[in-house]
C-alpha cells in the first residue's frame, strides 16, 4: 500500500499485480490500488476475485487504468485497453515441462512491450511467447534466451520482428 502511494505521488508508473496477495485486500483497498496504478495484471482466478471484491466488472475497472491484463493459461489472455478487448492467443510451447514462473515470464514480456512502446497486440503476443518459452524449461528462473533467439521465434510465429 505504501509503495503504491509513493509511486503514485512521485509520478512513477507501475503495474498492480496482486498475485497471491489479492485475498488480503478488501474491495475499497483494491480500488485504491487500481486508482493509483497505470496497469493491472491478474490471472483469470484473480480477475474473478477482483470483480467479486470490488463489485465492478473488469471492463469497468479497465477504464481506471491504461491497461488491464487477464491471463488465462493455455487459453491465452485478454487485454482491456483503449476501450477494447484484445484477445491474445497462447503460443504453443515446444514442450510442457514446468509451469512455475510462466506468469512472471508473461509479465516480463508485458513490461518489455510497455517500456518499448509496442502496441497492445504485439505486447501481448510477446508476453504469450515468453510464457511458452518458460514452460518448456524446468524451474522458475533457470532459463535464458538471447534477444535474437526471442526475436527469431517471434518472427516465426507472428511474421514480424519485435522491434
Architecture overview:
By secondary structure, the chain is of the alpha/beta class. Helix content is 47%, strand content 13%. It has seven helices and five strands. The chain starts with a helix and ends in a 5-residue tail after the last helix. The mean pLDDT is 94.
Please supply descriptive tags for the structure shown above.
163 residues, 13% strand, single chain, alpha/beta, 7 helices
Short summary:
With 163 residues, this protein is of the alpha/beta class. Helix content is 47%, strand content 13%.
Topology, please?
Blueprint lengths: L1 H9 L4 E2 L10 H10 L2 E5 H11 L3 H5 L4 E5 L5 E5 L2 E5 L13 H14 L4 H16 L11 H12 L5
Parallel strand pairs: 1-2, 2-3
Antiparallel strand pairs: 3-4, 4-5
Overall SS class: alpha/beta
Strand order within the widest sheet?
A: 1-2-3-4-5
Strand count = 5
- C-alpha end-to-end distance: 35 Å
Total number of helices: 7
Give helix % range. Answer: 40-55%
Series of secondary-structure elements, N-terminal to C-terminal: HEHEHHEEEHHH
Amino acid at each position: 500500500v505504501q509503495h503504491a502511494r509513493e509511486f503514485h505521488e512521485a509520478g512513477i508508473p507501475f503495474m498492480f499485480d496482486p498475485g497471491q496477495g489479492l485475498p488480503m485486500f478488501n474491495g475499497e483497498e483494491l480500488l485504491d490500488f487500481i486508482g493509483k496504478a497505470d496497469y493491472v495484471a491478474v490471472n483469470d482466478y484473480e480477475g474473478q476475485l477482483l470483480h467479486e471484491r470490488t463489485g465492478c466488472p473488469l471492463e469497468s475497472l479497465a477504464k481506471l487504468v491504461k491497461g488491464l491484463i487477464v491471463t488465462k493459461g493455455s487459453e491465452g489472455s485478454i487485454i482491456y485497453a483503449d476501450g477494447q478487448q484484445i484477445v491474445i492467443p497462447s503460443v504453443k510451447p515446444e514442450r510442457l515441462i514446468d509451469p512455475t514462473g510462466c506468469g512472471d515470464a508473461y509479465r516480463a514480456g508485458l513490461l518489455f512491450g510497455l517500456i518499448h512502446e509496442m502496441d497492445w497486440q504485439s505486447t501481448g503476443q510477446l508476453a504469450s511467447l515468453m510464457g511458452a518459452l518458460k514452460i518448456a524449461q524446468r524451474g522458475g528462473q533457470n532459463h535464458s534466451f538471447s534477444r535474437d533467439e526471442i526475436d527469431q521465434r517471434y518472427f516465426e510465429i507472428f511474421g514480424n520482428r519485435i522491434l
